[in-house]
# Entry
Amino acid sequence: MSEENAEAKMPLLEHLVELRFRLMWSVASIIVLFVAVFPFAEHIYQFLVQPLADVFEEIGGQRRLIFTALHEAFFTYIKLSLITALFIAFPFISMQFWMFVAPGLYKQEKQALVPFLVATPVLFFTGGAMVYYIVMPWAYEFLLNFELEGGPGTLAIVSEPKVNEYLSLSINLIFAFGICFELPVVLTLLGRIGIVSSKGMKEKRKYAVLIAFIVAAVITPPDVISQVLLASVLICLYEISIFSVRIIEKKRIEDGDYDEDEEVNGAPST
# Structure
């Protein structure tokens, strides 16, 4: 092997070693947090189940969650502990990611990426909070309206959710809303690299509204209030994205990197 090839491959080897180091720290943080969180898994689960408990209390009667397999509750707590550990470790993992990519970025690129790293967890947490405090109570109240009291010649239909199914439903809702709330981050990033423009986003607003209602209908429980609420939030986030992309375009115009007169079909030409 020539010296030129050895010198060319050394940086790649160093990057792989650095990547392994960052991954090891990230995995280690998740394991440590999992061990620390598991003793409190029952309390965390009770926190997640509180919206359903409040609805049950309003309806009245003796209510409960059940598990039909002996190991079901145990593995549910393991799953919940792992998800909680991932959630808590996310800032540390993001820092490891930043420490890995930052040395290869220019100063301007670092300044551009930092706001996205900060906004991502904030928006995700906002979406999750909206699910927990607003969507879940409305959705569970709507779904429990399908219970049926027993009487002469009829059987009662009563909800007795399983612990693992409730956890899956709650986590899926939180992640779905959290990801939807990342819309401004994604569109602003696409606007920064020139894939989308504020003009094009304005022209396609009617399609965005349609897609917002389709997404809301797919990921929310089947009640109109939750669907309209999520669709309205997505539309507002889309409008915020247009405003954010427009700010970036103005800055690029001031820097001489963008020309409004060269836009074609809503996207800047290169």
About this structure: Residues 197 and 267 are 5 Å apart (CA to CA). The beta strands are 263-264, 267-268.
